[in-house]
Amino acid sequence: MNPLVVGVSYRTAPVSLLERVAVAADAVPGVLRDLLAQQAVSEAVILSTCNRVEIYAGVSAFHAGLLELSTVLAEHAGVPIEELVEHLYVRYDDEAVRHAYRLAAGLDSMVVGEAQILGQLRESYRVATSEDSAGRVLHELLQSALRVGKRVHAETGIDRAGQSVVTAALELGAAESGLEPANANVLVIGAGAMGALACATLQRAGVAQLVVANRTLDKAQRLADSYGGTAIDFTGLPAAMAAADIVLSATASSGHVLSATAEPGAAWTLDPGAGAAPGAAGPLGSKLILDLAVPRDVDPALGELDDVILLDIERLGSALAGHTSSTDVAAAELIVDDEVSGYTAWLRGAEVAPTVAALRARADDVMATELRRLDQRRPELTDEVRSEIARTVHRVVQQLLHQPTVRVRQLAAEPGGAQYAALVRELFALDVTSDSVQEALGGKE
Q1: For the chain, does the N or the C end have fewer beta carbons within 10 angstroms?
Q2: Which fold has domain 2-162?
């Protein structure tokens, strides 16, 4: 079983495609079940964020696994697979491990070094664990990736190079609009993980007034209370929109929350599907609107209005495309390289373990058979003599097996090492699925 990553991100696909491929939180369990129903897929974890959708899987074969993961993702998104594959990236075996570690370290983020991805990866792993879709390969991969991410942030200065996406959006927005978060009236739409990060960032920036809007008032209230803000549900958006200098939207809505409108005296309308009374609308005035959601919360047409600057994930990605990494990135890459070697050694060892267990089980069976034959042929032997003979035979067999089993483990850790375990199984006609082997492995495959 080997790790395989298939995904799309802001680097490989336009936001319009990311919006279609994005997997909403309530849809993740169903997609995981679809993945596990595939023949070559035995484990799966889904990571869906504002700028990437990735499937981590344990597969028995590369080509079959790639086709199955791509097909499930395309069917979920309602995108022809021929269109989707043009934007997919694929990482297999060691490169899948490297990708996971670089991701957790913030090295593949839109803003290099940002730490939010660690929480997102942790949540994806939690969901997969609750759905029992992560097995031995992905448990080890995700746990080690989270550890690597923490190590990189602890041992390098990458945090100095990396801002959160929220911080980057606020800085770019301020550069274009002249509206600084300090002493501004800010409206945050959405009380999820991104909304919480926005509130924390804005509080540190010293905003004059912070308003948190959410479909459900109690969730908005909990977030607002944590950061000294005011909570409203979506029925209060018209007044809040009118009073805000900066609007930051980051909901999990499947469509636009704010749309352009031709209604006299109003520049925007709240999508009835967002949970407010139909027809909620109002004037906009001079505004900086930051849309950090995928799918997008804000109708791009709003950005065409006078005195409105709209910055969404697509524009943010373009603006950060030339972002220069600090020298600490090199140190982070070295840590990743070191940790990839460690995981690879573990994986190869795990793959050869059933073969070693089967070889030892075969030796135990041969010893037991010969000792029983001795008992039948030499009934006059005392129990003490029989015990001494058994111990001697056992020591001889263990000494004979020691060097081959140590060596096959060493060879298995090298590139192409799986062939050595396969040769041992072929030479000794070993059955790695037998009950004795599974018992030796603790009942695990």
Answers
A1: C
A2: Beta Polymerase; domain 2 (3.30.460)
